[in-house]
Design goal:
The complex is a heterodimer. Chain A is an alpha/beta fold. Chain A has 18 helices and 16 strands. Classes of the chains: A alpha/beta, B alpha/beta.
Chain lengths: 514, 553
């Protein structure tokens, strides 16, 4: 195979990317940017118009972005003739179902002579990404009191490198109120992240309501720290309006002690509560009831079933489980696999594709259904094995993409490429993307945002932008600008230059310099 | 000679202090029984409760027959804050239908809040029917709506909103008129969205003054119309406030019953002023205090004060009746080394650097008075010029060990008493004062626990009722050296709420054990409303120690 055209293409792309880095400060860096040399003024009477689309999702996004872009009230008279006063938005496909396959590409053309702007999204979600890019291009000139776009006329063709670009939040170690989750969703959309992996329940608490098993949320910390099914539905819709899928996780059987507060019969013993009891039919009845009920709430094709850190010692403490193991001639590992597979069957019964943490692959390898998506966290090296075995993979290697590791710098997060050691294009296709994980042991509403940001933006760019956009020196000023943008949008993002996450700035100074 | 006269002055103060103390009068106490507290922060002054749970109708409405922008805006906000969960429409009888507000003086709807405003309210929550809220001003009504919002909770099992211990009768009013929070946008710029969020959170704790320390040595982010280079002292091109931004913030605050007092800290904290106009500073290498030797300094001070006040009241940038002119930490060495300043002093017959400082303070007072603004100064202005100052001046106390007036007797008192001695000096001299004692009420001191915030009382040692009236309130201060857009909320909360209760509730509501669960729930309430608030147990800006419920951490 002649690799030269590809090589030249990459050089060309990287030149474009670098030109972009100099001229436009957008995070994540768009794929293809052509810049001009004019500064185009934007009227404060600016508006978006949806050419033929009747999409409500789009109209609501217009409202949001007008508020975000035009944050300074302006009383000065504009000269609308020479200013950009409207942007037309068109959408190729009106299909608003949001799944892994959704096309998020867009083209943004802004012309200075005469002033005009057009955004074309492959879908409404592509248009949302384009609106975000546009919002980062418009700046406020404090001297003239006008909004402006530099480097016009400009043209941006953009699409994501990976379809799964996630942030995981954990509402079991600490409850996160709806408002907090909404703010996180808002902030994700600014970085073009598109999957909220919601680790809803775990050993410590079970905040989610189930109508069929109404005692499950007795495992919540308090009567107030709970989500009703309607709350969850509201969050899923709020996320969809921002082009974000919600991937719900019910981590079983290992991280599930809180399930037995309401239903002790599904746990091995009162003093040894997890993993869940594989010998009791009640266990699987409950899982089936729960997944059936929630499959209509969490409408994504995927459901995360955990499966990590299964320590089977509690299974030894139950006579019932011991007898059952003997009866089926199961080892502990067999029982673990039995549990995982039965959970898969239940998930598939409600038309969900199961996602599991990597232990499931490490233990059972190619015994698993090929549809299963493996979420790597222990070691990046596993990813190559996963895709070599023909499974799809999501990357969250904990050495770099775990946000509670406060010493992990944004540079390390930025340099982590999901294709490391995976060269075969067919295998590369099996890497769906990655997630930055915000485990909640020490993260509650007080410190969530500044633990996530700005580092998650480095991950977001890795997952969206071309693999060649990987120079930390070029990224630094853009990341600093993006952090200041977040704070302007009411998201608490920590200083970029701090070596530790969620640390105060070292002293007085500019947001752009810290 | 000045040393001697200073010492003499302080001896006199001390004697006055002793006479003040002899006029002991028993402090007035509110009617709250400690055994029964309402789940409201700050604790209301007087209330009675019932024993039943009132159900809130699913079609609950706020209403008033009066025309009021402030109330309508509040209704919209509180409807979202209270009814944050989707609740199924159920036909209910015997439920609380809505809240109806009656304001005695509805003209306050269009006025700017002031120090004298009556914020009292009467709130009656029945078992069914209409909640009655009555207040003298719209701002009092806002306090009542906040109280109501804290009494409604969501029952997750039945998916209904409820009020426990109904019926309620609450008659509430603040203990102090001035209940403030200082934010500092000079050490770090705070975007408009953050300031609005802080204003939201202040209204939840019934704080009513945002003291905006807008400029300082490090940066000058504010637009000055007549001197358009002033904001070249901002950190960057982007970290600036236009005057339109300020109008926007001031109105946002007014709708929440919060006054905004701007501070221009002159002459000591002003190096950033000379970025745009170099003549404002003594020299490029020695930039503060401000340069008295050039007329532009006084012209700009006068213009800023005029822009603050506006040509008409309606056009005022900051309509509040008070302006803070700083006056703290004036270190005169840059004057001493400037030949121009020395020349100016000779020409004006000024011999002491102390008198240059005095000139600035007096000039600030003069130009402020001309536009009907009352000046607030930091305590140094008082400790230096004391009774010579205009009696209308308000003194904000913050003190530091080294600025304690040295009188042998003072050292008999342990450090806790030092502040109150100064407060006593101030009020005995007939000045009004605001309490911001740094050992207790500085939020940037991360080691100061919420209990210390709570235990501090502005009236400690001030027993005389007439003198107590001169203590108009207090402020907690979030100095910005280590506070930027990333950590503002969780540095302020929940500790500011402890001070907010001290400033609102009766003096005898001071039991730390009873406060703890209420403060913990208030922290959870802040979280539900999108405000980050540090865990009580781990301390300010510290992560929670491990997994756990919001109310126990």
């Amino acid at each position: 195979m002649d690799r030269r055209p590809l090589f030249l293409g990459l050089v060309f792309l990287s030149l474009l990317a670098n030109a972009g880095a100099v001229g436009v400060s957008v995070v994540p860096q768009p794929l293809n940017v052509v810049l001009g040399k004019t500064t185009l003024e934007v009227s404060h009477l600016f508006n978006f118009t949806a050419a033929d689309s009747h999409s409500n999702t789009l109209k609501m996004a217009f409202e949001r972005y007008l508020g975000l872009i035009f944050s300074h009230s302006n009383s000065r008279d504009p000269d609308v003739q020479k200013m950009l006063s409207v942007m037309t938005v068109t959408i190729d496909s009106e299909d608003e179902s949001l799944q892994l396959e959704t096309d998020e590409s867009y083209r943004l053309e802004i012309s200075a002579f005469p002033p005009s702007a057009h955004l074309q999204g492959a879908t409404v979600y592509g248009a949302l990404r384009g609106l975000e890019t546009f919002s980062q291009l418009v700046t406020y000139n404090f001297l003239s009191g006008k909004y402006q776009i530099q480097n016009a006329s400009l043209s941006i063709h953009d699409k994501p490198r990976f379809p799964h670009r996630g942030l995981m939040i954990d509402t079991s170690r600490h409850f996160e109120p709806i408002m907090t989750i909404r703010k996180i969703i808002d902030s994700m959309s600014y970085a073009k992240l598109n999957v909220l992996h919601w680790h809803v329940v775990d050993s410590q608490s079970f905040p989610m309501q189930s109508l069929s098993y109404p005692k499950l949320w007795n495992g919540a910390y308090t009567r107030q720290e709970r989500y009703t099914v309607d709350d969850a539905r509201g969050i899923v819709e709020y996320a969809r309006q921002r082009g974000i899928r919600v991937l719900a996780e019910f981590d079983m059987p290992g991280h599930a002690a809180s399930w037995c507060v309401g239903y002790p019969e599904i746990c091995p013993a009162p003093d040894c509560t997890q993993p869940l009891n594989p010998a009791a039919n009640e266990t699987f009845n409950l899982i089936e009831g729960l997944l059936k009920e929630l499959s209509g709430v969490f409408v994504d094709d995927f459901i995360h079933l955990g499966g990590d850190e299964v320590r089977t010692s509690c299974w030894n403490k139950s006579h019932q489980i011991q007898a059952w193991l003997k009866q089926h001639n199961f080892t502990m590992d067999d029982a673990y696999m039995y549990f995982v597979k039965r959970a898969h069957t239940i998930a598939q019964g409600v038309k969900k594709t199961p996602v599991n943490w990597e232990e499931v692959f490490n233990h059972f390898g190619s015994n698993l259904d090929k549809e299963t998506v493996i979420h790597v966290w222990l070691s990046h090296a596993t990813a190559a094995k996963v895709v070599a075995a023909g499974y799809r993979c999501i990357l969250s290697n904990s050495n770099v993409w775990y946000l509670p590791h406060l010493g992990t710098t944004w540079e390390k997060m930025y340099e982590n490429d999901p294709y490391m050691n995976i060269d075969d294009p067919d295998e590369q296709k099996l890497i769906l993307g990655g997630e930055a994980c915000m485990w909640g042991e020490t993260g509650d509403s007080s410190d969530l945002e500044w633990t996530i940001w700005p580092r998650a933006a480095a991950v977001a760019e890795r997952l969206w932008s071309h693999s060649d956009v990987n120079n930390t020196v070029l990224m630094l000023p853009r990341l600093q600008s993006f952090r200041c943008l977040l704070t302007r949008r009411s998201i608490a993002a920590a200083p970029v230059l701090n070596n530790q996450a969620r640390e105060a700035p070292p002293g007085p100074g500019s947001c752009y310099g810290q | 000679a000045t040393e001697m006269s200073n010492v003499l002055l302080r001896v006199v103060f001390f004697l006055v202090l002793v006479c003040c103390k002899t006029q002991n009068v028993k402090p007035v106490q509110g009617g709250v029984r400690l055994s029964a507290q309402a789940p409201v922060l700050p604790q209301p002054q007087n209330f009675t409760t019932g024993l039943r749970i009132a159900q809130v109708c699913s079609l609950f409405t706020f209403r008033t027959s009066q025309r009021s922008r402030v109330l309508l805006d509040a209704f919209y906000r509180y409807k979202k804050l209270i009814f944050s969960h989707f609740s199924r429409q159920k036909l209910m009888s015997n439920c609380v239908k809505g809240l109806t507000v009656r304001v005695d003086n509805i003209t306050t709807d269009s006025t700017y809040p002031s120090l004298e405003d009556d914020e009292s309210y009467v709130l009656h929550i029945p078992l069914s029917g209409w909640v009655m809220l009555r207040a003298v001003t719209v701002f009092g009504a806002l306090r009542g709506v906040e109280t109501f919002s804290q009494l409604v909770h969501f029952n997750f099992t039945h998916k209904l909103y409820q009020v426990a211990k109904a019926p309620w009768d609450i008659r509430d009013f603040p203990r102090f008129q001035h209940r403030g929070l200082l934010i500092d946008t000079a050490r770090h710029f705070q975007p408009v969205a953050n300031i609005k969020r802080i204003l939201d959170s202040m209204s939840y704790a019934k704080l009513n003054v945002m003291h905006w320390h807008i400029v300082d040595t490090q940066s000058f982010p504010m637009e000055v119309k007549l001197y358009p280079n002033m904001w070249e002292g901002s950190f960057s091109y982007w970290e600036r406030y236009t005057q339109e931004d300020i109008y926007d913030i001031v109105e946002y605050a007014r709708l929440r019953g919060i006054r905004i007092i701007p501070e221009f800290d002159i002459p000591g904290h002003a190096a950033s002023w000379c970025a745009g106009y170099s003549d404002l500073c003594p020299s490029s290498s020695c930039t503060q205090p401000l340069n008295p030797a050039h007329n532009i300094t006084f012209e700009i001070i006068e213009d800023i004060v005029k822009e603050v006040a506006g040509k008409t009241d309606a056009a005022a940038l900051f309509p509040d009746g008070f302006i803070h002119l700083g006056g703290d930490e004036v270190k005169t060495s840059c004057w001493e080394t400037s030949p121009a300043v020395r020349k100016w002093m000779r020409e004006n017959g000024i011999f002491l650097f102390q008198d240059v400082y005095r000139h600035f303070v007096e000039y600030g007072h003069k130009v402020s008075e001309a536009v009907r603004r009352t000046v607030i100064n930091w305590e140094e202005a008082f400790t230096n010029f004391g009774t010579e100052m205009n009696k209308n001046t308000v003194i904000q106390i913050w003190i530091r060990e080294e600025s304690i007036p040295y009188v042998g007797y003072v050292h008999i008192f342990v450090s806790v008493w030092i502040l109150v001695v100064l407060i006593l000096q101030v009020v005995c001299s007939g000045f009004r004062c605001i309490d911001s004692y740094e050992n207790h009420w500085y939020l940037d001191w991360r080691g100061t626990s919420w209990k210390t915030f709570y235990n501090h009382d502005p009236h400690k040692l001030v027993d005389n009722v007439d003198l107590q009236k001169l203590v108009i309130g207090g402020e907690v201060c979030a100095w910005g050296e280590h506070i930027d857009g990333s950590n503002l909320d969780l540095t302020i909360w929940p500790r500011a709420a402890a001070a907010a209760e001290r400033l609102w509730s009766s003096r005898d509501v001071n039991n730390v054990t009873m406060m703890k669960p209420r403060l913990a729930s208030f922290r959870c309430l802040l979280h539900r409303r999108g405000i980050s608030s540090s865990p009580l147990q781990s301390g300010t800006r510290k992560e929670p120690s491990g997994p756990g419920g919001c109310d126990v951490q």
